Recover the amino acids of this structure.
């Protein structure tokens, strides 16, 4: 659905490039994570993909057309969930959505009532947004991004500012959108979100993509093929996964005491990121 | 067209919710009161013209600036520009909303001084176009700033420059080149609407000047706004 080939970008009146030869593809029905610390180039890449920044080098194809060949109709096909709340504060939540809805063809628009229910804001539809908490505004961001039923969705830090219940609710709905065949781009520095949501991830640092892969493969590849057994008496030992059922030492150890937990020692996505890029996400 | 009228309606509501309509009404009442006291003095129309231009600059220039700064501050512009919103509708609907409000104020003032004894067509075009021009210049200045203080500081020389034709109007100068300034057309039309026939040459010049300056300013503002605020 989206193909990016050798994408480079330099801001006007700047001498240094912020994006260097990016290559990635996002398929229909896929959640693609773009992971990197602040200033890595995530926002610039997104602005290019939602046709705000022009003058880039390389090729960006969306659907069957080059990005530059798309006209205003492109914006009917994309939905953007921003990192920060951005609403008319003096208007109600319903009015905000109605205002934005007025830019789209009516036949594409989803009913507002069920949309508000998705994010549990149905009781606050007619309240002014200035009375909302940050979390409520972020939930409003989310439904504004999907109200015109776009094929392609961009979410920038989709769960930032949300409590765990609402974060779960949003993640669940993003997965549902993926299952409906939407193409979803998630930019985040939250590795937990990326791990839970994304089918594939790219690590971007200093404007360069260092790697693109499935999180499960990365965690497996960069982790230990071992389990850590911890007993209730706090004694713990590592055992290789291979041949675990016949490993006499392992069997002896778990007979010895009461097991508290057994964990696989696959790497976390954050550990993989640090090992590959040499950078921390909070940098 | 549906989108344009939709935006017009939304702009009006946003201005109203942000108390801009109330502020405009307050300013108008103040100006009408000033005009009421001035009408007993000679050349009250000249003061009305001055007030209309001041009001237009206040409503058009300042309120356009404030509304865009507010939207930048609330990050609403970035959300708007990833929708199929038509940038022309976005700009024109705001200009026309404010100019329509400004025209109502201008009518309040002229009715107070002259009753119905003025040419409503020349007057309406003159007052309306003054606000259109000031709004466009407001868009231009706000394209280069994100802060109210910067906007205010930059507004002072711009507003003074735009308003220079008033020097000739008040016979303080007689500089021919000031006739080429954008608001000269509005000034001629407003000034000539007070008489029964008016100076035909000035009226024709006024219409021609506006026919050149409004599209030219709009084109310039559109490009600047798109470059500085949309594609960034």
């Amino acid at each position: 659905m989206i193909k990016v080939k050798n994408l480079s970008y330099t801001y006007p009146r700047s001498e240094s490039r912020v994006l260097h030869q990016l290559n990635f593809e996002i398929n229909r029905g896929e959640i693609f994570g773009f992971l990197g610390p602040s200033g890595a180039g995530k926002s610039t890449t997104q602005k290019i993909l939602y046709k705000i920044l022009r003058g880039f080098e390389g090729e960006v194809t969306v659907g069957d057309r080059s990005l530059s060949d798309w006209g205003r109709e492109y914006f009917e096909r994309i939905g953007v969930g921003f990192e920060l709340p951005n609403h008319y504060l003096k208007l109600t939540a319903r009015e905000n959505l109605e205002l934005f809805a007025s830019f789209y063809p009516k036949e594409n628009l989803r009913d507002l009532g069920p949309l508000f229910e998705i994010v549990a804001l149905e009781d606050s539809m007619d309240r002014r947004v200035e009375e909302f908490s940050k979390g409520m505004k972020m939930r409003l961001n989310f439904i504004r991004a999907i109200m015109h039923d776009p094929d392609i969705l961009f979410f920038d830090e989709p769960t930032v500012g949300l409590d765990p219940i609402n974060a779960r609710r949003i993640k669940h709905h993003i997965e549902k959108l993926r299952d409906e065949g939407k193409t979803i781009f998630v930019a985040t520095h939250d590795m937990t979100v990326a791990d839970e949501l994304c089918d594939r991830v790219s690590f971007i640092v200093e404007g360069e993509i260092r790697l693109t892969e499935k999180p499960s493969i990365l965690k497996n590849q960069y982790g230990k093929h071992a389990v850590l057994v911890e007993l209730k008496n706090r004694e713990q030992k590592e055992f290789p996964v291979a041949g675990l059922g016949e490993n006499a030492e392992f069997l002896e150890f778990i007979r010895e005491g009461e097991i508290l937990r057994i964990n696989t020692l696959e790497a976390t996505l954050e550990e993989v990121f640090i090992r590959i890029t040499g950078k921390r996400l909070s940098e | 067209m549906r989108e344009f009228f939709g935006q017009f309606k939304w702009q009006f509501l946003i201005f109203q919710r942000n108390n801009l309509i109330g502020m405009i009404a307050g300013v108008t009442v103040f100006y009408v009161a000033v005009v009421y006291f001035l009408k007993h003095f000679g050349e009250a129309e000249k003061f009305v013209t001055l007030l209309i231009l001041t009001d237009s600059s206040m409503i058009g220039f300042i309120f356009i600036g404030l509304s865009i700064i507010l939207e930048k501050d609330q990050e609403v512009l970035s959300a708007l520009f990833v929708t199929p919103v038509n940038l022309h509708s976005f700009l024109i609907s705001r200009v026309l909303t404010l100019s329509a409000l400004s025209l109502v104020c201008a009518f309040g003032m002229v009715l107070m001084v002259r009753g119905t004894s003025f040419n409503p067509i020349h007057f309406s075009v003159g007052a309306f176009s003054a606000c259109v021009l000031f709004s466009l210049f407001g868009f231009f200045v706000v394209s280069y700033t994100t802060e109210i203080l910067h906007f205010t500081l930059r507004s002072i020389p711009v507003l003074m420059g735009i308003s220079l034709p008033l020097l000739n109007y008040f016979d303080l100068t007689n500089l021919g080149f000031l006739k080429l300034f954008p608001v000269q057309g509005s000034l001629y039309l407003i000034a000539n609407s007070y008489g029964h026939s008016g100076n035909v040459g000035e009226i024709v010049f006024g219409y021609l000047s506006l026919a050149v300056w409004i599209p030219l300013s709009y084109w310039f503002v559109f490009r600047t706004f798109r470059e500085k605020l949309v594609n960034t």
